[in-house]
Amino acid sequence: MDWPCKICKFATSTKEELMKHYRLRHIPSVQPLPCPYLDCFCSFKSWGSLKSHISRKHSTHSTVRTSEILSFCCQFCNVGTFSTEKEYFEHLRQHLKKQETVSCVFKNCSFKTNIYGTFASHKNRKHTPHSLDEFKEDVLKRFEKPLQTDQCSDVVNQEGEQSDIEEFRDDDVNVLPKLIEKSLAHLMLKLESSFHVPNQCNDELVESLHFICHSASAPIMKDILQSCLKRHNCEVDEAIVSEMVNNICVANPVSAALCDGGPLSSAFKRRKYFNEHFSVVEPIEYILTGESSFQYVPILKSLLQVLSRKDILDLILSEAEAQRTVYNSFHDGTFYKTNELFSKNDLTIALNLYVDDFEICNPLGTSRKKHKITSVYWVLADVPSLLRSELNSIFLAILCKAEDVKRFGYSAVLEPLLKDLVVLEEEGLYVPSLGRRVKGTVFSVVADNLGAHSMGGFVESFSSSYVCRFCLGEKSQFQDGEVRNKAFPPRTAEQHTLHVQALQENNSLMHVYGVKRQCALTAKLKYFHVLSGYPPDVLHDLFEGVVPLEIALCLRLFIHNKYFTLEELNKCIKEFPYKWSDKTNAPQLVPVNFAQRKSVGGNAHENWALLRLLPLMVGSKIPEADPAWELLLVLRDIVELVVNQVHTEETICFLDSKISEHKHRFLMVFPEQRLIPKHHFLEHYPELIRAYGPLVSLWTMRFEAKHSFFKRVVRHTRSFRNILLSLAMKHQLLLAYNQHDSRAVRPLLQATTLSTMDVSVLREDIQEALQAKFPGETCVQIAKSVCYRGTKYTSGMILAYGSTGGLPDFGELIQIVVLKGNVGFIVKGVTAWSIEHLRSYVLEKTGPVKVIEAAELSDTVPLISYICGGTTIMTLKCSIYVP
Length: 883
Description:
By secondary structure, the chain is α+β, with helices and mostly antiparallel strands. It is about 40% helix and about 15% strand. It contains 31 helices and 27 strands. The strands form 7 sheets. Strands 17, 18, 21, 22, 23, 24, 25, 26 and 27 form a 9-stranded antiparallel β-sheet that branches. Strands 9-10-13-12-11-15-14 form a 7-stranded mixed β-sheet, with helices on both faces. Strand 26 (about 865-870) and strand 27 form a beta hairpin. Helix 6 packs antiparallel against helix 7 (about 240-250), helix 25 packs antiparallel against helix 26 (about 650-670) and helix 26 (about 650-670) packs antiparallel against helix 28.
């Protein structure tokens, strides 16, 4: 088969059959539609965009042999060649706009004009439609190059769009009605789950569609049929014609699905159809008291659905077999390696839970806390971080009113979940594709400090004596002692057991060394312990804790010392030329009362961006060696190290020294300021990285984004009747919609525009770089922007690759080449030297042009440079690992 589907396993011998398959199987689509041509890696969000792309980029294939690549050349200037006809005529338009005389580009035509409208009219009247063979020889150049695909001809109308007329084979007749019915059901599921259309509106839509397809269409169809019979001199009784029209209307798959008694005619029948054909895992209601209940989505059923997908199972198997030499996953941490279940040489399942409270109403309105909900999510930890970060990979386990959790406790609310997890630990889950059972358990519970302490059974007030779940240090000692100096003994499993026993024996005790009660998960699960199951959260500790506090304290000093005013600072923040991701996460203006609040406000992304870009905004106004400024720079070093996705013993030790330096600088600059508990939690990070692996893989950033779905449902539906059931059911319907006929693993490479170019028409330095990297290749695909492994790369970004003297080399991304599915970055080498006062790099374009493959990058995160005072300066987002 020459035309395989890039989404599923379907393959066919013609492109028309493949396009028909797209329309029946993958539209409406929950993910970008890839271009059907194997040598094209573009993808599109809609059917119309895909058709336009094929018409613009691949219409030339109708008259071109598979061994040729086309290039259009301008006869009137020395500008380079163009890969598509559209680009070529757009270029000619620029000549005509300057009133330059342009000759007709088609053979045997002597027409000339310097007016664009006249040229366009002549082209449409005399040369539409046309083939590529009609262009003059000096306009169209052909380059011999064998391609991998059979580029069949497209059916193109006069407007340049692909025709929607598709011929169906006889063996499609029996399958087609069911496919149409399922496509219609998929659309109805999308309306209900993604757009939150109420069932009442869907019922009215069903009635209207049925009327249009049946009653309203019957007279028109009858008139068309009679006209056709009359035109062919066929005399048929009118009653027979009426019967034929009625049979056609009844047999219409859309009408049959929506009519009374059809599978999609009512909300109840649609829900039944969704459950049968889209594998919806419905939530189960558990009663706490007569008026209180919660919703639980059976985790074993959901997990079985996930493991039934071969692409996910392959990822789990590949992760289990991966060889590791550094800390780049939780598999590398000591907690995973010493776990009795995970340490066995057998396939196991590791789960991460997430617990948090969120408001579904305005937190400042009259309904504040009235509808506050506690949610428990879970994610499969054994898949790559790129897949874990997708919201579709985060599954719902429990929704409960927050007040009911406080009233009845986590033990009662988590009871059904814990029963299923005990089964997973002791019996395992039978995976049909493997033909055996696979055991698993919870590796960690991701939560903010309040959630972790509440669920783990520790004190929830951070003004008490023992506020750390990692050690037995008293809060009064945090100011003087250091974790690295062994001032605070770590908690041990034996000690924790004694603390819990003391509480159980003496009910008058409020807590014992910060322990209030037994952790519900530790009490039920054999392979989970509270002391190794609650990792720290970088988001709340750093970006919503230490960072906004210290920025506010330092800004107060800077303004007091008259380095700048608050108005000048806010002007710099507002007028800074943010680019790409920085534009999305641009920091908020600093509020007037920031000194009293001891916080600059903003969310985690905004605070992170402010800390990173502050040197470029006001660094030149601050004197060298200013103590408060040095404190912020050390904090930046800590952030860059903590958010790194790869760690070694060297980077961990360096982080440990930076945290110690930061603490001493803070106490020196602000001797009157007491350290907050999050400062102390930060001191545990080096050892916790050894235990958990990179901490950014266990932060709450992506989990908190999941809350937005439930808030959106309430905002759109405005219904609070049995709100927990409504939210849980909507989520499960959306999950079923997203997982239907879609790949769990997105393509490694995605693009929207690719131009096929002959190497000989590129710049000489680029030609030399391509020949050095890909010798013998004469044709490549060029792009200015692509998405590779979930990261977007655009021309103008700075990439880190290789190293010289232990420091990374940098290059400015000029263009992106795609060759046989491999990505190559054409970069202009830059000379970079560090400015310690700004913790940034000054860049100068002095190096040669190189082609760097993705595997050669020192860090996959592209960097952004800014021009400040006539100098190009770049800041790092995370420390770059140089082997």
